[in-house]
From TrEMBL:
<keyword id="KW-0489">Methyltransferase</keyword>
<dbReference type="InterPro" id="IPR029063">
    <property type="entry name" value="SAM-dependent_MTases_sf"/>
</dbReference>
<protein>
    <submittedName>
        <fullName>Class I SAM-dependent methyltransferase</fullName>
        <ecNumber>2.1.1.222</ecNumber>
        <ecNumber>2.1.1.64</ecNumber>
    </submittedName>
</protein>
<dbReference type="Pfam" id="PF13649">
    <property type="entry name" value="Methyltransf_25"/>
</dbReference>
<feature type="domain" description="Methyltransferase">
    <location>
        <begin position="59"/>
        <end position="157"/>
    </location>
</feature>
<dbReference type="GO" id="GO:0032259">
    <property type="term" value="P:methylation"/>
</dbReference>
<dbReference type="InterPro" id="IPR041698">
    <property type="entry name" value="Methyltransf_25"/>
</dbReference>
<dbReference type="GO" id="GO:0102208">
    <property type="term" value="F:2-polyprenyl-6-hydroxyphenol methylase activity"/>
</dbReference>
<keyword id="KW-0808">Transferase</keyword>
<dbReference type="GO" id="GO:0061542">
    <property type="term" value="F:3-demethylubiquinol 3-O-methyltransferase activity"/>
</dbReference>
Length: 278
């Protein structure tokens, strides 16, 4: 249900994520055995749009258990830092880094709220600031987020964001064919659904979550206002999840509407750069 932002939103969300770390690390969804064996956690469009990261520093905001972060290190980033507000998630990420042979100077993880990132991360700026899919909906204010993230982009560097398209949150849950919810709503969405996307049947206790919907225009405008130059905004007709029953899984692992239905954007990505010094 939509409601004004509750005072305990951060604590409620942290308790929810803390509890789900153990479920996620044991799940087939994350398949840590395959990841340890070399499976890439990044999506093909992200690799193509970010480009070669060899020798670069990369900061991953809201990194969860660090699979995307460590994948960037595997692709040649010289130094990656993952930040998440869940200490159990950061502990899991650090354990994975050790198992894969990454020393802290190659892959470090920090437990801190994203709003405190500037004070928490080891360096003042990074060649790439990365935010992966399913992160912005946990933050109430995109303008504040953009200011924090942009300040951590080094001159000549860029921010890259991949995210679920907010249009999907406006469609009816059953078919994804009817506009049911307000695209421009600024209210919090409070939910108490048990389980987790990685295991829908998992028994859980901390089920209350508080999320927000952010129109794409707000995100782009916030990044521009924070001093970054928008290089591109790409919209994608595929989703990582079967968000609606009508979505069909394709050979590339993405879910799309059937070919006889009009396409809509299900995800989007943005690259925004900081001009080089001088």
């Amino acid at each position: 249900m939509y409601s004004p932002t509750p005072d305990d939103w951060r604590e409620a969300n942290r308790a929810r994520w803390d509890e789900r770390v153990a479920i996620h690390t044991a799940s087939d969804f994350y398949d840590l055995d395959a990841f340890r064996a070399g499976k890439d956690a990044l999506r093909a469009f992200e690799l193509a749009e970010v480009g070669d990261v060899t020798g670069k520093s990369l900061l991953h905001l809201q990194c969860h258990i660090g699979l995307d972060t460590l994948s960037w290190a595997r692709h040649g980033a010289a130094h990656v830092v993952g930040l998440d507000f869940s200490e159990p998630a950061v502990d899991a990420a650090r354990g994975l880094a050790r198992e894969l042979g990454f020393t802290p100077d190659r892959a470090a993880f920090v437990a801190a709220d994203v709003h405190d990132a500037a004070e928490a991360v080891p360096d003042s700026s990074y060649d790439i600031v990365y935010t992966g899919i399913g992160a912005l909906n946990w933050l109430p204010d995109t303008r504040r987020w953009a200011e924090i993230a942009a300040a951590l982009v080094a001159p000549g560097g860029f921010l890259y964001l991949a995210e679920f398209h907010p249009l999907t949150d406006c469609l009816d849950d059953a078919t994804g064919s009817t506009i049911t919810y307000d695209y421009f709503s600024r209210d919090a969405w409070v939910d108490e659904t048990p389980g987790t996307y990685a295991d829908l049947e998992a028994p859980t206790v901390h089920n209350r979550s508080v999320e927000w919907q952010h129109p794409v225009g707000d995100v782009v405008s916030a990044l521009a206002a924070a001093g970054l130059r928008i290089e591109f905004l790409h919209e994608h007709d595929a989703s990582l999840f079967q968000r609606f029953a009508a979505l069909e899984r394709h050979a590339d692992g993405f879910h799309r509407f059937p070919s006889d239905r009009p396409r809509i954007p299900l995800m989007y990505s943005i690259k925004a750069s900081r001009p080089a010094a001088g």
